[in-house]
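pinging the channel bc i need a second pair of eyes. not urgent but kinda urgent?? the chain im working w is below, pasted from the shared doc
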Amino acid sequence: MTAATAEPISAQRSFASSLIHRQLDYYPRTGPRFFYLAIVVIGTITLYYELYVGGSVSTLVLTYFGMTFKFYVLSLAIGNLLGAFGSLFAGLTDRYGRANLVVFGLLFAAIFVEFILPMATNRYVFILEGFIVGVVEGICLVATPALIRDFSPQVGRATAMGFWTTGPVMGSLIVAVVGSITIPAVITSTHFWTHEYRICGVVGLVVFVIALLGLRELSPQLRDQLMVTLRDRALIEMRAKGLDIEAALKNHWKQLIKPDIIISALAVSVMLLMYYALVGFLVIYVGSIFGYSVHTANNLGYWPWAFNAGAVILIGLLSDRLRVRKPFMLVGGIGAAVLIVLFLEQAKVGAHPAFATIAALLSIMLFFMGVAYTPWMASFTETVEHRNPAAIAAGLAIWGWVLRVVVFASFLFIPVVINTVTPIVNYGTEISTDLANYPALNWAKTHPTIVALGQKYGALGIEATKLSPEIAFAQKYPALITQLSKYTAATIPSKLLSTAIADAGGGSKGLGVLTTMDANESTLLQISAHQAQLKAMEPYTSELTALSKVPVNVTSFVQTFGPQVSSALTKSPGQWRTWFWVCFGGVIFFLISIPLLRGRWRPRDAKRDEQEHEAMVQEELAKLGMT
């Protein structure tokens, strides 16, 4: 059944049938329209929550499955590429509808997150199952904003798109909130990551039921028209009775392969490079650069996502009130660029910025990104409508495809630019724990020469401590020692022996010193030959003793991986800064592309356009005999 012949919802349709056939043959009034929009927004938030939940436990996932950072990022890249083609597939919703894709996409994603992903037995199974969730999200990335557009006239579009944009933002915020509440400060098992997935899956199943029962969509005859204000409702319903859907959709892809569509989609995608870096790697970044725990890193996520969510809604309302989009895009882009520079300056070797500083910079940065993004979404859909109102899903599919391909390409380059994460994430925590438990290991890092001497002459040093009375005697009476060395113990003249015994302490004590010296002659010769080395070790006797008590496996682990972690900690800040400069360049490209989109710069010009459109609507209604 094609869209042109799809049956509308009617009072006669059964409850079971209405769960599949969701089309409305009339434009809903305000109450029901807001209800459908709310379901779409809640569904979008849930899908992004399911997509992003892994970010809250990314360090645990890497450790649990033994993934390198490079493997992890490349898997995210491939997932985004597959999602890109899911977005292209969703372009077919211009012809076959959108609501069922969203409803059953919610079901599919929830089942995977709740039951399948937590049961993954190895990294390859986990990644392949994550790919499936990514493809579903790629489809819904197009279907949900298309539904938002269908139920939103251009005057009011930015507000509606602002609420839709809370989907990825609130998804990230929920991940941070749930993570900070449910993830303990000290995690005893890396398998804890499954806990966050199961919470997310339950939420997904609940939202699926809501969408299954409540979500509807416009019939093709209604949605394939341009609606500027709600006052157009009567006109589009009249037009819908004679609209040729097949003709409207003919060559609709070709109509949209234009510079204003393609370049604008690319521009907003590179503007969002910073956003996607934070979504995927915020926990890893602040953990590896600033030493934050998983719990603290999720606490940090509260603020930027909350500010971004507030921005997309507030700016949507302001943009609709002033009837302009481009000034907000300009202000948001400039603000985001400035904050990216301020943020990347925090990443320096040895820097320890306050939690509040990082939270403030990220919050203001994400606020400005929201200022730019919501008006862009409204303006982009209006630009697509200018080309062909019947091809809105195809236009959004192009945007979704470009976005995912850009993210795919960026995730391919991130491991090339940043190659220091794996040793920090995989070994850094254990190294830190070992150094805290055995302070002598910290001392050893700063005294490598003494440690080397200790390893070579440590046993001899212990013997020197035991033989300290004999060494002291030999050092005090070198001439006497020379005389004694000419005889064996049995042939020493009695007078010389008596003198030696007296000088060594007298009586049994003196005799004991001489006897010990005779028994340890070779050892005393070695001690004499290495006096300089033993003298250098002498001030550090307690430290070397403590170091000798460190378990062999701990010492071996620190010696093997400690230099890698230390080198990575030195190089990592500079590598992250390099990537953030790339993100800065993406924002600049976005600013340059703003003039390509439809829309006015000045509110009075936009108001005049609206008045002219209203006059046209009244004229057409008069021709149809409806005024």
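so Residues 155 and 229 are 5 Å apart (CA to CA). and The radius of gyration is 36 Å. — does that match what u expected or am i reading it wrong
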